[in-house]
Every structure is written in C-alpha cells, then in structure tokens.
C-alpha cells in the first residue's frame, strides 16, 4: 500500500496516517481499522469499478477524507 497526499496534510497527520494506514493490507483490515477508531468511522461510500476493483471513501479528521483503491 502507498499513501498519496493530494491535499495539504500537516506533518503530524501524515505521520499518523503512515503509522495507522500503511500496514492495512486488505479491505477487511480497512473496515476493522475504521470501526475500531473512537468514535468508530463508517464507510461513506464504496464505488464499484468492476468485479475486482472498488474505491472506498471514509472521513478521517475535520475536512480530510481517505480514499482507498482496492483490488
């Protein structure tokens, strides 16, 4: 997995995402991570690209949204 900052994250936000998100290896890991947060984070949208690829969108902090491209 890799992280692309297409916004203007602070150094602290980028470090937190690197620590928390980069180890996630599957959609199942992502969902478990999102629901384990306090408060739990629900998936905002899942966009099906085809039978193998999905884009998963969820809010993170303030006006920051995370988008995961899963295959």
Description:
The protein has one domain. Strands 1-2-3 form a 3-stranded antiparallel sheet, with no helix packed on it. Strand 1 (45-48) and strand 2 (54-59) form a beta hairpin. It contains 2 helices and 3 strands; from the N terminus they run ααβββ. The protein has helices spanning 11-20, 27-36; strands spanning 45-48, 54-59, 65-70. The chain has 71 residues and is of the alpha+beta class. The chain is globular and about 35 Å long. The mean pLDDT is 89.
Features:
71 residues, 2 helices, globular
Secondary-structure-derived class: alpha+beta
Spatial strand sequence of the major β-sheet? 1-2-3
Largest sheet: 3 strands, antiparallel
Report the strand count: 3
Architecture blueprint of SSEs:
Blueprint: H1 11-20, H2 27-36, E1 45-48, E2 54-59, E3 65-70
Antiparallel strand pairs: 1-2, 2-3
Concise structural overview:
By secondary structure, the protein is an alpha+beta fold.
């Amino acid at each position: 997995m890799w992280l692309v900052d297409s916004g203007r994250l602070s150094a602290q936000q980028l470090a937190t995402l690197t620590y928390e998100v980069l180890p996630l290896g599957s959609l199942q890991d992502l969902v478990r991570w999102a629901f384990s947060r306090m408060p739990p984070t629900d998936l905002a949208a899942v966009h099906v690209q085809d039978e193998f690829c999905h884009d998963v969108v969820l809010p993170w902090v303030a006006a920051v949204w995370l988008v995961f491209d899963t295959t």
